[in-house]
Amino acid sequence: MSARAGIVVTGTEVLTGRVTDRNGPWLAERLLEIGVELAGTVIVADRPDDVLASLRHLAAQGCDLLITTGGLGPTEDDLTADVVGRYQRREMVLDEALESRIAEILRPLLRRWPDLDPDGVRAANRKQAVIPAGSTVLDPVGTAPGLVVPPPEGEDGPGVLVLPGPPRELQPMWEAAKATPAFRSAVARAVSYRQGMLRLFGIPESEIAETLRVARRRDVALERLEITTCLRRGEVEVVTRYEPADADAYEAWASVVRERHADTLFSEDGRLIDEQVADLLAEAEETIAVAESCTAGLLSARLTERPGSSGAVLGGFVVYSDEAKIKLVGVDPSLIETHGAVSGEVAAALADGARERVGADVGVGITGIAGPDGGTEAKPVGLVWFAVSHRDGRRLVRSVHLPGGRADIRDRSTTVAMHLVRRLLITDVAEGAHEGGVGLPAGEATRRA
Amino acid sequence: MSARAGIVVTGTEVLTGRVTDRNGPWLAERLLEIGVELAGTVIVADRPDDVLASLRHLAAQGCDLLITTGGLGPTEDDLTADVVGRYQRREMVLDEALESRIAEILRPLLRRWPDLDPDGVRAANRKQAVIPAGSTVLDPVGTAPGLVVPPPEGEDGPGVLVLPGPPRELQPMWEAAKATPAFRSAVARAVSYRQGMLRLFGIPESEIAETLRVARRRDVALERLEITTCLRRGEVEVVTRYEPADADAYEAWASVVRERHADTLFSEDGRLIDEQVADLLAEAEETIAVAESCTAGLLSARLTERPGSSGAVLGGFVVYSDEAKIKLVGVDPSLIETHGAVSGEVAAALADGARERVGADVGVGITGIAGPDGGTEAKPVGLVWFAVSHRDGRRLVRSVHLPGGRADIRDRSTTVAMHLVRRLLITDVAEGAHEGGVGLPAGEATRRA
User: How far is Cα A348 from Cα A385, in angstroms, rounded to an integer?
Assistant: First the structure.
């Protein structure tokens, strides 16, 4: 049995959905890395009773470590340190060394915002130096310190790791927290799990259910594996956790997936399509340029998410209007007249035009109907045409009919485009030429791409 | 006292952070709209015991309604209906009408993926028609039905609303769920709160703590208001909830904020900067074009998030390399040589070039160092230059030094740019000309923009 942890995310702004919680997921991944099982994440408002009840609930689930995020700020609705003190039955005391440390941190801030009232700022932040007695202080990254608060004097029970809400303050504190004795003793029982990650593109999730049945018929020891599947940005992700001794069972399971899904399994090593495309471009020393209509910059932004992407991405175009397609990328107006702006022909012209005008090796064109308006029977909302073309003449053109709302369609389109780029980069010239025709019927393409 | 609800989000993929939960926040907003207070959101893995414990915990917090999301899919790790049946002590029964309904939904899917084994698909989905006896079925949007499961026969207790995980299946079900008797009786006690939203740009969050102290000194009845502040994409959001009878207290509090933060308060009516910029452009019947270096498409994508944005956004440029800045937008190479690519001069040339080449009324240029590499002492990671220029000669040029990692810097840059566009659009010619100089020292600009 492994060590268990529970996370309490505090903040009315997170609970009410105004702010997306990034800390729970981030901490979940860190816990997994060190072999600590996560029992659950509870999100509550900045109400002392709710925070306290959440700590108690998670402790009752057998947690050895509780982690709180948020509620350490300077305003009066930030109450976490106080509540954790109550939970561990420890008095609140002013830590004077910490108070000076925070004052030091604030000095440059006061210079930057010269109109602020210095006394007000100091009062607001003195509050942040009042902590439960016996806590270990984790040095502030912003102005809020982290804390490790041990169980009540002389009692057993989970330690509580108290972290600030802003991810850029929380994340650097994690390493410091891991080094504290309270944290180490809590996670002493951790088992190191392995995790296998298989990613597929172009099949529905229900196909994996059938693959599980096939594996069971072939006596793969599925009961030794914890298998979960999910859809993520249009891809199916199959994650398998297992203890190191069960590696053979995992290998047998992975073989069944490989055999049944040879043409759609694109990643077995945890690498995302984004990394694969970046690596393929880097290996070939090739550059890429995009002309985007409905995605309007999202693919360029996605291609440059990783540091160092300037080696492959030179530039690109957002061509929202027909005029921009013609003027910026050189699409022949007669193509738009004849086939419409959302067509394979225009997608191909966008790919070629982007490539040529930027001087890149690979060009990508995207044109579609993201909705909610603008759809017709022949070209419904969700129809998106893609083209990827190479300087050497290879070209792939596809259409898909994507489900969901405007944001889904735009996001999903970037995933389809990434897979089409990968396909072009791993396909030799002959196959590329064979597949290069325009006019594949809509709805067929997700499978082939 | 208002009705309370609790949300249980199930899914190992959500708990472990591989997938971002969009349902909890979405449901939180819907509950707020109908005056139901959210006690908490619990995220757990697809483990029956954990789901059950979460339902019990939330019921113990006085919830009148429990909502589950996820775990209704065709694979064997999808167990929610079963667990809710156990929680409400109701037998699981096959609903034959529902089974036929699902079979009907699957027919086109089977045509689209002709290689699937039809028996396998049907078996996987028959599971989705086995539901707790006495449940109200909510018609499937995908293949998974929603359920409203009443408390055990003859007992009081919260009803459970069971919804599927994919947001595009869950969201359309909400209206149907609200119409069910079980749901209506659970939320009968709902009080309709009002909510006031004040958004500020260009001050640190701690300033609001001081404003709260000022309001208290002036005897504003803060105890009748529930005020929370948070940072969101670089803006400070102050949300105040209150009962309709306390509108005067809210008005007194809002007056203090208005007075102390006149120059940074940009929204009092809930409108985001995105809506303000879209509306300002639409009112002036003006168009906009962007040339982006470090943000590489994110601002164009943000400007086109809203339906109908094609009225204002014609096109734009991603100019990641120096060559692209010169070739695509016509930046004078000597400007890059003299001032560097990250400079006010180049930002201004990008704004002008984008505007002229696209034929737009407003141009935006962004060039900065998103990191993690590429920073120097003079131009550190996080330094970003912005320019906004108008066809009539007005121009604003600013630099900021943004905190955080690569993704933060890129995202935050789009917020700064949006505010600079707003500033240009609400400023008259004289003021614009006055503010138009290049060379404002880095670090000063967030306040002034």
Answer: 9
Question: What percent of chain B shows pLDDT beyond 70?
Answer: 94
Cα–Cα distance list, B28 to A268, B1, B17, B22, B417 (Å): 37, 18, 20, 10, 30
**% of chain A at pLDDT higher than 90:** 67
CATH code, domain with B99: 3.40.980.10
- Which residue in B40, B226, B372 is closest to A43 by CB distance? B40
- The domain boundary, picked from A142, A166, A186, lies at A186
Per the CB < 8 A criterion, the answer to whether B198 and B255 are in contact is: no
User: pTM higher than 0.80 for the full model?
Assistant: no
Q: What is the DSSP letter of B135?
A: P
Query: What are B124's two structure tokens?
Result: 């996987």
ipTM of the complex: 0.76
Kindly give, in sequence order, each residue whose CB lies less than 8 Å from that of residue A12, ignoring residues fewer than 6 positions away: A45, A46, A77, B226, B228, B239
Which tens digit of pLDDT belongs to each residue from B274-291? 999 999 999 999 999 999
Query: What is the distance in angstroms between the CA of the first residue and the CA of the last residue of chain B?
Result: 43
Structure token digits, residue A394: 């290879």
- Whether the Cβ atoms of residue A3 and residue A188 lie closer than 8 Å to each other: yes
Determine whether the interchain pair A317/B316 forms a contact, defined as Cβ–Cβ distance below 8 Å. yes
A54 and A203 in a single domain? The answer is no
In chain A, whose CA is at the least distance from the CA of B144? A206
Among A227, A245, A267, give the residue marking a domain's end.
A267
At B9-25, the pLDDT tens digits run: 999 889 988 888 999 99
Q: By the CB < 8 Å criterion, does A73 face chain B?
A: yes
